[in-house]
Amino acid sequence: MKHKAKGKSSSSSTLATNDSHSILFWSLIAIAVLFLLWAPFQRGLFNGYNMDFDRPIYSSFVWSSILLLITSFYLFFNYKYRNLRDFFVLYIWLVPLSFLISLIGAASHYYGANMLYMHMMYATFFILAIYVTNNRLGNNILQYTLLISGYLIVIFGMLNWLGNLKIANGIAELFTSLKGLPAYKHAVMSDSNGLRLTSVFQYANTYSAYLIALLFGCMLFIFRSRKWYPVALHSLMLVPILVSFMLTLSRGGLVILPVVLLVLLLFFSVERQIKLLLYLGISAVAVLLTIGNITEIGSSLQNNFSPSLSLKGWGILAVASIIVSVLVTLLNRYLSPVLEKTIQEKIKLRYAPVILPVGAVILGTIAVVILFTDTGITKLLPENIRIRIDNINFQQHSVLERGTFYADSLKLVKDYPVFGAGGGGWAALYEKYQNNPYTSKQAHNFFLQYLVEVGIFGFLIFAVLLGLVLYNYCRIYFKSDKDTKDTRVLYLIILISLLIHSVIDFNLSYAYLAIVVFICLGGLVSSFDTIAAPFTNRLSKWESYLPKIISGGTLVTAIVFITMSIRLLSGNTYYHQAIAEAQQAKPYTEVIATVDKALSMQPNHPDYVDLKQDILMQVFRQIKDPSLEQEAVQLIKDFRKAEPYHRLGILFQLNFFMEQRNFLEAHSVNIEGIEIFPWDIDMYQSLVYILYELGNQSRSDKNIAQTDQYWNEAIELYNVVLAKVKHLESLPEGQLQGREFNVTPAIALYAGQIYYIKGDYSNAESALKHGITDNLEDSLAQTIARWYLAALHKQGKSEDSLKEKLFIANPQEAKKLEELLNTKFD
Question: What's the predicted TM-score (pTM) here?
Answer without folding.
Answer: 0.92
